[in-house]
Design brief:
Keywords: Membrane, Transmembrane, Transmembrane helix. The chain crosses the membrane at residues 34-53. With 57 residues, the chain is mainly alpha-helical. The protein has one domain (2-45). The protein contains 2 helices and no strands. It has helices spanning 2-18, 29-45. Helix 1 packs antiparallel against helix 2 (29-45). The chain is elongated. It starts with a helix and ends in a 12-residue tail after the last helix.
Length: 57
């Protein structure tokens, strides 16, 4: 789930940068890209995955 969020955030950052959209200081393409990197790091760390590793006995 966090990987999909990261991909969406990277796409939004790309659109902001490619279309040269002027935004306020908190919603720049760099800040959106950093949010995407944070979501990607959480995904790689295993947070936000749908798998459960509990054993059922």
């Amino acid at each position: 789930m966090a990987g999909i969020v990261a991909a969406v955030l990277f796409f939004i950052a790309f659109l902001i940068n490619a279309a040269d959209i002027s935004t306020n200081d908190t919603f720049t393409s760099t800040n959106v890209m950093l949010l995407g990197l944070t979501a990607l790091a959480l995904h790689v760390a295993g947070i936000g995955t749908a798998r459960s590793y509990r054993s059922r006995r």
